[in-house]
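LOG
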Amino acid sequence: MNEPLPERSRFSLHPGVSILILLFLILGLVSFGALSLSTASADKKLSDKASGQTFSYYAARNEEQQWLCEEDRVFRSAYETRKKSTASAGDASDAYFQSAGASGQDHIIRRTFAISSTQVLSCELEVLLPGSGDGPFYRIRSEKIVYTGSDAYDNSITVLDPSAGS
């Protein structure tokens, strides 16, 4: 009744297999680490570029706001001069628009502010003739970023150039 149990075969690995597994594991960790470092470097370059562009945009906006403050002073001065003028209403209005720097029949002032070598912030004001010295002296008709660069890209690919062979 007491029969001997059959011996189980033990599964054994060759001693070099565990070293191979460890090497592949280390190799995988190193390659993922290198990819992670590469991605982090690319993300930093991209964020630095975006930060520089944002800084340039707000520097141009700041310059525009300073210009608008100067224009407010010019408009207020032109209004006071018009109010004190003894000329007819039409002549005084023409003088007001001329002293305010407005051109043409629609009394528009246009100004651009550099953002980068290929972009400018364009601002267009319509000069108004206010009823009182409190303004408003102008209305901003448009304010936009304008691309000023060239779209001439070289997309050619040299497939065969016999002159480059020698």
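LOG (cont.) second protein
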Amino acid sequence: MKNFAPTINGLAAQNTNGFLGLSTNTAFWTNVANPQSPFSLLHLNTDDIAQQIGYRSWMNPGLTFTHNKDLMYVGPLRNGATDLTDAVIVWSDNSSGEIGPDNLRFIFSAGNGLGAVETPEGPQGLETARITPWGYMGIGKRWNNALQPQRRLDVDENVPPSAAQFRVTYTPALVFTDFQTTSQGYLCIRPNSLRVGINLNGADFPTEALDVNLGTARLRNMPNETPNVLVTGVVEDGPGDYVLNYLEFTGDPEDVLAGDGIWVNIDDASCEWNEVNNGGSLDLVMGYTTPSTACDTGRVGIGLIDPAARLHVINSLDVLGETVLVEAEATNDPSVGHYGILTRTEGGGDYQVAIAGYAKATATLIPPSHPLIGTMGSADPNGFCAHNAVGVYGEILNPQQTCGSSVAGYFNSSIVVGGATINISDESVKTDVNSISGALDGILQLAPKSYYLSNELLPGAAFDNDLAFGLIAQEAQQVFPNIVKEVAKPLIRDDEGNLASQEGELLGVAYEQLIPILISAMQEQQAQIEALSAQVSACCAVDAGNRSGALLANDILIEQSANRLDQNNPNPFNSNTRIGFNLAKDCRARVCIYNASGQLIDCLIDEFRNSGAHSIEWNTSDTV
């Protein structure tokens, strides 16, 4: 025993008074590399240099072993509180550069007559368990430096098929569950009650070999073999609680499973495709309702399991082709009409659509120029004489019975026309035909505007964002009431029946009806021009000598009553022409030349001039 305070593992002034050290190597007390003092109350050593790396200052009340450059401690450890002390086993290894790390092993070395039952393996004895420095504990007898435990608890046992590596016991030898991993890696669970429960609470017990609560089963990579039974479920204790059962196949390909869980032969089924004689034709029908029977009156889905309509078809295959293809093979009988698809909706409600086309892109179209078309119609004479070919036809039946406006087509966005837009204008369908009068006065009262159509002011609209030109319907209605029409914006619902756009009443302008009004206005204007030209001609016919004196009243009216710009002469010309103009009063005069695009070419004069007639010559060679 030494009575001083040495430094151990870098911890200075360790109190080792009263400690006892026993060593088989005297160098333990004399080697300057050692603290030359025991580490704990009892320290057993065999080395010349004791390993200090694993030492802690709290190890003084226990038993320390230092051997083969390693350290082990067994003793108490105070755990924070005043009266809380744990029993601990500590083992440590030398520096990382040495062989290791070392394990904590549990070894049985035989005796008490057990050697005949389990012979200890090797001179070290029979290892039953070990703990690695990483906290992995292995239970078994085959662990070695090359084969270490790989999990927090790793049970190793090469047992016969009837045994198990691991047992959870409630009552020893009476109530337990064995777990076994076979040589093929299979997991076997063998409760002595022959029942396993998953997600059952403490008050519930499994009633079947496998009883699962609050969950479902998922099977992956199952073999694809021809089945001979169908796994079914029988209600045990209300919805969601089922006991698995099985239903054997009958082997008859004509048998189907009915909704009551019974195999039914197709020939005996009451709801199927039936042949019905309707006036001499043999029709194939299904899903019909009669006063006496109703057969499959629900929805039909193709390509999906939850149809949203009477017939709902989805083509989810990544192949080119039509989802639904209907072809009508027409006969040569000219009295017989043919419809490829004829749809009809009848009844009340706020919304009825006979045919709705909806094209929606769910990814970028490749290439981007590919079209996205909601509804497409085409007519192909196919090399034969077709009396009339119409791609899309729309009409309003009985328009006089419509409460609101009636239009055969309503387009919520721009329209592109590849051919002529033709309005019916045949004389045979016109009555009360009259000439248009006062067209010029009306045209002069119209006030064209530039504007932008707002989608925010009309929810559900799809106006272009471009600058537009046109008339204000309310203003045009005051001048030409008949070209302004009331237009009903229809109620629009999406493909799921949700409201997409509210209906509303608007005013629209039939711009094509302005064409004959403009023609009439131009004719009226031409008549006025011709009348004025006649007056000018009469004025010019007066003798020049007389005109040099006093002007006639008409001359004064024409030449001096207003500012006027005369036609240049000659016209056309090569490089020189003369431009005449008249000023009603003394003023600053400015005569400039512009091109057809409105760009300034040249200004000939910009100066004060007296009232009366003037002329100026323009030489184009002087214009830069």
